[in-house]
Design brief:
- The protein is of the alpha/beta class.
- 36% of the residues lie in helices and 19% in strands.
- Strands 1, 2, 3, 4, 5 and 6 form a 6-stranded parallel beta sheet that branches.
- Helix 5 links the parallel strand 4 and strand 5.
- It is globular.
- The structure holds flavin mononucleotide.
């Protein structure tokens, strides 16, 4: 099974979860940021897993990212805004007939969802969902991940392989 894990990550937690999910899927899976996950790479995959942080109760918008870029305030670490948003990546996703799974990183107690918009983007392009969306939790607004979340991500990756069988 060919699999890619695509992510948007400003402060690194979603990237770390994406790498752990890819490890859980196995050596054939790659974790790629949005500009690495080209249409060719994705077209060749049976399973596309995609994840992003929950920002402002939703999948980050380009307006939100511009706001962070132009008015960063007092940040503990500079955000990585060098890769396109997952929202714009999904808007440009060509039609496909593979399967998808979605995840988000977030605080424990927050309304809203990034995975609902991720699922809509894949479904618009014809992909079918293989497993329920998953959440991975951070301790504070800028991370880090809570203890055990990377193990949970590896286990989820392995579960996705079974769900594809
Ligand atoms: C500006 C901003 C808005 C956020 N909004 C939310 C939110 O609405 N709900 C939530 O659960 N977490 C929120 N968070 C926390 C992020 O979802 C969390 O830190 C995420 O893991 C960041 O992922 P990254 O390190 O991959 O960029 C917010 C963080 C920032 C900096």
């Amino acid at each position: 099974m060919r699999a890619v894990v695509v992510y948007e990550s400003l402060w690194g937690s979603t990237a770390a979860v994406a790498r752990a999910i890819a490890e859980g899927i196995g050596p054939q899976a790659q974790a790629l940021c949005t500009d690495e996950a080209s249409a060719d790479v994705v077209a060749g995959a049976d399973l596309v897993v995609a994840g992003a942080p929950l920002l402002g109760f939703t999948l980050p918008t380009d307006k939100m990212r511009d706001g962070i870029r132009t008015n960063p305030g007092r940040l503990p670490a500079p955000p990585d805004l060098s890769h396109p948003s997952l929202r714009s990546w999904l808007a440009a996703l060509p039609s496909g007939n593979g399967r998808f799974a979605a995840f988000e990183t977030r605080l424990r107690l927050s309304p809203g969802s990034a995975t609902a918009d991720i699922a809509r983007g894949f479904e618009r392009a014809g992909y079918r969902q293989v497993a329920e969306a998953q959440r991975f939790l951070v301790k504070g607004k800028y991370g880090p991940l809570r203890a055990g979340e990377l193990d949970k991500a590896r286990r989820w990756g392995a579960e996705l392989v079974k769900a594809m069988a």
